[in-house]
Amino acid sequence: MNFHIDAIDGDIGHVRGMLVDEESWAIRYMVVQTNNGWADHQVLIEPRSILEVSWLDHTVTVDLTRQAVKDAPPYDD
C-alpha cells in the first residue's frame, strides 16, 4: 500500500498492509512502518484510530500522536 500515515502532530510513516479477520473479512489492524527520524519498525494500529483517508493525497490521518504510534504494539512479519 502506498499511503502515508499522519499522526495528529505530524507524519510518522506509511501503511505496509492490513491484517484482516479470515471469517468476517473485517480489518483488524493496519501495519504501519514508522520512519521520519523515529526508530524504523512496524507497529499495529487499530482502524478505529483513523480520522480520515485521502485517496487523492494517499494519506491516512490517525487520531494518535507520533509517540502513541511509535509505542503501538510491534508487528513482526
Secondary structure topology:
Blueprint: E1 4-7, E2 10-20, E3 27-34, E4 42-45, E5 50-54, E6 59-62, H1 66-70
Parallel strand pairs: 1-6
Antiparallel strand pairs: 1-2, 2-3, 3-4, 5-6
Total domain units: 1
What is the CATH T-level topology? SH3 type barrels
The oligomerization state is single chain
What do we call the CATH homologous superfamily? Answer: PRC-barrel domain
**Which architecture per CATH?**
Roll
Bin the strand percentage: over 45%
Structure at a glance:
The chain is mostly beta strands and 77 residues long. It has one helix at residues 66-70, and strands at 4-7, 10-20, 27-34, 42-45, 50-54, 59-62. Strands 4-3-2-1-6-5 form a six-stranded mixed sheet.
Overview of this protein structure:
This protein is mostly beta strands and about 80 residues long. It has a single domain (about 5-70), classed as PRC-barrel domain (SH3 type barrels). Helix content is about 5%, strand content about 45%. It is built from one helix and six strands, in the order ββββββα. It has one helix at about 65-70; strands spanning about 5, 10-20, 25-35, 40-45, 50-55, 60. A six-stranded mixed beta sheet has the order 4-3-2-1-6-5. Strand 5 (about 50-55) and strand 6 form a beta hairpin. The radius of gyration is 12 Å and the shape is globular.
